[in-house]
Structures are given as structure tokens and as C-alpha cells.
Amino acid sequence: MAVTQRWMIYGANGYTGRLVAALAAASGHRPVLAGRDGAAVGALAAELGLDHLAVDLTDSSGLRAALADVDAVAHCAGPFVATSAPMVDACLATGTHYLDVTGEPPVFEAVLSRSAEAAAAGVVLLPGAGFDVVPTDCLAGLLAAALPGATSLELAFRAPGGASRGTATTGLAITAAGGFRRVDGRLRPTPFGRPRRSVPFPSRTREVGAITWGDVVTAYHSTGIPNITVYAPVPLKGPAQRATAAVVQRLLRYGPARAVAAGMVRRRVTGPSPQTRAATGVEVWGEVRDGAGHSRSATLTGPNGYDLTADAVVRAVGYVLTGVGPGGPIAPGAHTPATALGPDFVRELDGIHLSPVTAAPSPADPAGPFPADHGQIGTD
Question: Fewer Cβ in 10 A, N or C end of the chain?
Fold first, then answer.
């Protein structure tokens, strides 16, 4: 896709930012690379033959100046719960389209809540333009279209190969906040790893547990389905493991304990090697049901989540800059990947194999009722 407008990758020297920058350059794009570490960004820019600049997100005037002649920014510097708001503020002030690779539900809620501001500014806000949450959001959109009137959505994924430092750090904050599902349109707290169920992934059927994932926010906005649970493989089968996880979660709510854990992540986590990425891939399963007992399900497989992220971001930037995606014109405002680009966007990504949507079996509800003392948060 030929792109003539000027765009930026912020956080280009981070693990994901480097992958996005390298793929963009290899695909003929000429983004300006940016971040707060001028030396690191400059070294990468020299390697790729791209322009660069140094700017800190805390410097609001400097950030707006840096975006003044930029048409879009791919924001890759997390944790986004701390970094997205200043970048979104600057983008709205300068008329710059915003994309990021967050997976944090509070960030999705915050960015999507600014849709009216974005529309007034003529700006597209597109959080979650990577593995979080392109494949799951698009699969949710395809399933919802196959069963209009669906009232429940379940998604599950496997993403082996390890995490980057940024992903692991973000995971600490999500773990500390606790688990959430969407029930009757609201986010409700639920124990990490529960409920559990078996999921027929393409590789084989696996047991999974409920986790907090961006789709509890994004899939609700994309489909309007009021009951959403996301699952992943979590080794919490017995009472002892669940008790240990609960203790860890409580500890991570305290700043000093989380700082210690974050320090360990910085020292020990580097992200998957090219060899590991090449040898691993993702699997996603989804199922929708309606009140009459009808159902639809589908699966997809793809490359390693970080390679998928780079591919999705570069393609999404191109579509946002031209103003038209696979799903048609992209209106200014805040979007999920499926609402901005259409659920068929996932089919364009390299290495994606999507199964046909079929009727699903009708097991008993694996989730069961919520305990009475589970409160509700958010209204979305």
C-alpha cells in the first residue's frame, strides 16, 4: 500500500516498536522514529535509514511540536495506562491519527470514551492495533455477523513464545487489578482463572481459564454483545494453585511489591528471539450464542503474536492514512480494529488461517452464576 503521508512510530526502540519499524522500512514506508531515548532511537534510525527525533511524553509542548507535521502516530511505548493519555491529548490537539498496541482494558475504555472529541477534531483513535486485539476483535465481529442477536461471546487464545519486557510489565498491573468479565453489559470482577472450560483449538482441545483481556471492552463496543468472557491456558487447576495466585495478586496491589516484580522483569525479560518467533504461532477460538440456543463458532491460527502485531500495525496505519479500509470509509472517532477496518481485516494479515464459521455444540454453561457479592464496575 503506497503511503505518502508522514507518520511516526513512538517508542520505536522498544521490543515491539523495533519490529514495527523494521517491517515498515522493509515494506517501503518512511516513518519517523521517536522516543524519549534519543541515542537508542537514533541508532535504530541509522540502521534503517529513517529520520528520528527525541521527545518525552511529559513535554506536552514538545510532543505537539513533534506531531505538528505528522499525519498519524503508531504509539508503541507502554505501559499505556501511563502513556496513552498524553499521546492522545497531543494527537487531538494536532489533528494526528492515533494507533497503539495496548491490551489494557482501562486504556481501551479511556480512549474509546473520547470518540466525540476525536470526531470533532477529524481524528481516528484506534487502540489495540496489534495482537491485542486485532485477531480476537475481528473474530468476534465475524461471529456476531453470523448470529445477529447473540447474547454471549466467549473467546480463547494461545500465544506461546514468551513475552516482551513491556508486555510482562503491563501484565503485572493487570494481575494486580484482578480478573474481569462482562456480564449484562457491565464489567464484573471474577477470580483469575475461573471459570474454566475446554476449548477445541485447531491444535487440540485444551483446558483454559478466564483472564482479563482487552476484548471485555473492545468486543462489547464492536458487537454490542452484553456477556463476554476471554480465556487462556492458566495452570490453576487445584485449590493450592488458586490460593497461591490470590496471594500473588494481593501482593502486587502494593507499590513496593510491584516495583520489585517490575525490577525482576527488567533484568530477566528480553522478549522472544527471532528463532522463537519463527517457531511459534497463535491460536484463537470464538463462540457466540443467542437466547434461543443457536450458536456459531470459528477458529484462526497465525504467526507469533509479535510478528502479527507488526504486520497489523503497518497495514492499519496505511488504511487510516488513506481513510478507507477493507470495511469501507473510516470515519473520524474512536474505534476498535473491527469497527475501523472491518472484521475481514484479519484475513489480510500474513499467515492467518481462518476456519469457516459453523454451528457450535450446546454444552451446559461452563461459567455458572456469579457469587452474590461480586460487584459491578463501569457502565461503558
Answer: N
